[in-house]
Amino acid sequence: MRVTETFVSLQGEGERQGMPCFFLRLSGCNLRCAWCDTEYSFEKGTDRSVDELVKEIADSGLSYVCVTGGEPLLQKEELIPLLEILAAADIHVDIETNGTIPFDDVSAYASICMDVKCPSSGEMSDLSLLSALTENDCVKFVIGDEADYLYMVEVLAAHKPKAPVCITPVFGTDTKWLVETIIAERLPVRFQLQLHKVVNVQ
């Protein structure tokens, strides 16, 4: 696998926000979101074997792994053997994906966090994939402005995903209006700030 980096930190987003986690960031992405904060993952990265990664994860002492990118499902064929080993070892895995590549063949081994791309990102996810999500997965919307918010409301109304929904404002933007709107409209969503940036960890 082509790996950009591995590290241990707190999970900053999603259903397991705040939990200590081993992060595996794979290289390469098929999108170029306007506010991407991991552009360095677009580069080639370093070749790592499954055995090397399994040992590093075991040495971390953690039973929670987040596979992110870039877009990790671009390396799905190489990733599946690692996921099989981690599942057999009772290590929980989250896969963060931009929702452009089907994930049915990895969902047996991991929870999926599908980041639905809103208009301000300049990109678009495959919304048909929302129907494949379960209660064990997560849907994330990164909101930059009112147009993004209205898009999210339309998507949720049209697709009614089974997975819990997390809303994160683009880091550094005003959040007051978003919080007030969520409360006023009684949206069944979880508002989150990017915890890792708030507490200044990786």
UniProtKB/TrEMBL annotation:
Cofactor(s) recorded in Swiss-Prot or TrEMBL: S-adenosyl-L-methionine; Mg(2+); [4Fe-4S] cluster
Sites where the protein binds Mg(2+): 38
GO molecular function, one term: magnesium ion binding
Keywords per UniProt: 4Fe-4S, Iron, Iron-sulfur, Lyase, Magnesium, Metal-binding, S-adenosyl-L-methionine
Location of the Radical SAM core domain: 16-202
Keyword Transmembrane helix: no
Keyword Iron-sulfur attached: yes
Residues where [4Fe-4S] cluster binds: 29, 33, 36
Recorded catalytic activity of this chain's protein: 6-carboxy-5,6,7,8-tetrahydropterin + H(+) = 7-carboxy-7-carbaguanine + NH4(+)
Residues annotated to bind S-adenosyl-L-methionine: 35-37, 70
PROSITE patterns, A to Z: RADICAL_SAM
Residues that hold substrate according to the record: 10-12, 25, 68
Pathway: Purine metabolism; 7-cyano-7-deazaguanine biosynthesis
EC number, UniProt record: 4.3.99.3
Taxonomy, superkingdom: Archaea
Class of enzymatic activity (EC top level): lyase
Cofactor binding mode and count: Binds 1 S-adenosyl-L-methionine per subunit.
Family, per entry: Belongs to the radical SAM superfamily. 7-carboxy-7-deazaguanine synthase family.
Subunit structure: Homodimer.
HAMAP family assigned to the protein according to its UniProt record, in alphabetical order: QueE
Known role: Catalyzes the complex heterocyclic radical-mediated conversion of 6-carboxy-5,6,7,8-tetrahydropterin (CPH4) to 7-carboxy-7-deazaguanine (CDG), a step common to the biosynthetic pathways of all 7-deazapurine-containing compounds.
Protein name: 7-carboxy-7-deazaguanine synthase
Taxonomic source organism: Methanocorpusculum labreanum (strain ATCC 43576 / DSM 4855 / Z)
